[in-house]
Design brief:
The chain contains six helices and ten strands; from the N terminus they run αββααβαββββαβαββ. The chain is an alpha/beta fold. The strands form two sheets. Strands 5-6-4-3-7-8-9-10 form an eight-stranded mixed sheet, with helices on both faces. Strands 1-2 form a two-stranded antiparallel ribbon. The N and C termini lie close together (9 Å). The protein binds guanosine-5'-monophosphate.
């Protein structure tokens, strides 16, 4: 998606350790007009798919998913990072290794908000090694729900997550895919998409 690529080029900052900072429009301050266009694009890409719910993970996914959900007219559920594993069986839970914080989180979704009747679109800000998305997919499977596909704002194509998901037959629609980025020069190369 040109608009997002141009914005990343203009305002994204490449950090050491393969991290792209997009705090000025996506991860801290949020450009809602941009989110709106992203939602419109996912709606176009997933047109004709039956989707009953959008699933994301706190915190950065929530704003994007919420704006996007208006196009699909479905609720957004976000997986919550939890301090304690809930043992009363009221939640689905999984462990996710965080790319940016180098630690493991337990995340939970209440059984009330996801079930076998659901067909789910997963939305998140970044796809790197795929841990966050795989965690969400395992929650969808636990719920007996169906995965319709995955919508990602920024995929780091030089990390393996996207390839693994696509190889597993999962539909992944990333609005910008980084082919490479260089912290010393700030250069970013995007993968061509039609
Ligand atoms: P994964 O689980 O695919 O390895 O990493 C995805 C998660 O890590 C995303 O939810 C995102 O919050 C964070 N993340 C991964 N890479 C980056 C990055 O380059 N920049 C930012 N801002 N977040 C990232």
């Amino acid at each position: 998606m040109r608009l997002l690529e141009e914005r990343i080029r203009k305002d994204g900052v490449v950090k050491e350790g393969n991290v792209l900072k997009v705090d000025s429009f996506l991860n801290h301050q949020m450009d809602i007009a941009l989110f709106n266009e992203m939602g419109r694009e996912w709606k176009r890409l997933f047109e004709g798919e039956r989707i009953t719910k959008i699933l994301t993970i706190e915190a950065s996914g929530i704003g994007i998913a919420a704006v996007c959900a208006q196009y699909f007219d479905v609720p957004v559920v976000f997986a919550k990072k939890s301090q304690s594993i809930n043992l009363d069986g009221s939640v689905y839970s999984t462990r996710i290794q965080s790319f940016t914080h180098q630690r493991v989180y337990d995340v939970i979704v209440s059984r009330k908000y996801l079930g076998p009747e659901d067909r789910v679109l997963v939305i998140d800000d970044f796809l790197a090694n795929g841990n966050a998305i795989n965690g969400l997919i395992s929650i969808i499977r636990d719920a007996g729900a169906e995965l319709a596909g995955v919508g990602i704002a920024v995929e780091k194509g030089f990390q393996d997550g996207g390839k693994q998901l696509r190889d597993a037959g999962i539909r992944v629609e990333s609005l910008a895919i980084l082919e490479s980025m260089d912290a010393s020069t700030g250069e970013i190369v995007f993968r061509e998409q039609e």
